[in-house]
Amino acid sequence: MTGLLVHEWIEASGGAEQVLEAMARAFPGADIQCLWDDAPRRFADRRVFETWLARTPLRRHKALALPFTTAVWRRLRAREDYDWMLVSSHLFAHHARLSGHDVPKFVYAHTPARYIWNPELDQRGDRAVVRAVSPMFRRLDRRRAQEATAIAANSAFVRDRIATAWERDAVVIHPPVAVDRVRATADWRNAVTDDSERRVLDDLPESYVLGASRFIPYKRLDLVIRAAEKAGRPAVIAGRGPEGAHLRTLAATARVPVRIVESPSDAMLYALMQRAGVFVFPPVEDFGIVVVEAQAAGARVVTGPVGGQVEAIEPGVSGVIAASADVADLAVAIETALGMVPFDAAAVTARFREERFADSIRAFVGAT
């Protein structure tokens, strides 16, 4: 059977791209369709098709491109007589339709579009212009979600939001995480080859609070710094993004030592996780692949009580669910986590191995 994998846009990094890579390995003969591809070497082993948006400046301005995408997805060209489509959607990719072809469409939903359905979870959707057009886009989004042959959600949290937003049932298939890769290296410090990164590792305190994600507002890395300050613990913040300057300002004025590590290599990130006293993840996330990676590295996790990331930990074993995502409650949870005994990382993270995801996603596409 010939299949087509559909994805919003392909970036050099990101959890959704990791899922797409796992889908590509599960279906090695499938082509890939996206709006545009900003990491052309990522899928060099197969055909990747872009839309006309890729030939415009809009590919560099996602917010401006969004109004056009709902129409673009409806006019995809069929390059083969595909037997099915598997759509990786976190915005409007599930609107995809092949012109002149009626192909079963299986949707793997990372989330219904936060901008229009849950702006309280992502302040980028709280702008006046977005609020003004959201009712129209919600009606369109719900109607086109009815076209899916079946829908899978990456967490029970997202499944419940799909039921509310799209009025559809969904099965839960947790995303794949490279837990075997993380666990394969006993000490990731030995795999760090960059001299500047090695110097950072050598300068870090013996135990610290770690936060790691993209440097954007809704990831709430500011809360990691403030909670570490409240707990009287040094902190390390790793990642990259437009909030870097703001986070550096917070770090400079904090009453505890705070180190900002921008654009860490994979080896560096895993080394930071292995050495961390606790990994703190404050946002309301759809799932949170980095939470599983931290546990695979042996780090205890602290998170708030709402979001898909709650499903990724074993409370009292590999982490603590704080009473709220407020600074005081996160600080209490940090102290609790630091007092926990080491856990079996292999046992805790086994259910997120890629092999299990591959079996589940192949069954999902082949079940109907």
Walkthrough of the structure:
The chain has 368 residues and is α/β, with parallel strands linked by helices. It has 2 domains: 3-176 and 353-366, 3-Layer(aba) Sandwich (Rossmann fold); 179-350, Rossmann fold (3-Layer(aba) Sandwich), CATH 3.40.50.2000. 38% of the residues lie in helices and 14% in strands. The chain has helices spanning 15-26, 62-72, 114-117, 128-145, 156-165, 179-184, 195-203, 221-231, 244-253, 266-275, 289-296, 327-338, 345-349, 354-366, and strands at residues 3-7, 31-34, 48-49, 84-89, 105-109, 150-153, 171-172, 209-212, 235-239, 258-262, 278-281, 301-303, 319-321. The strands form 2 sheets. A 7-stranded parallel β-sheet has the order 3-2-1-4-5-6-7. Strands 10-9-8-11-12-13 form a 6-stranded parallel β-sheet, sandwiched between helices. The two termini are 14 Å apart.
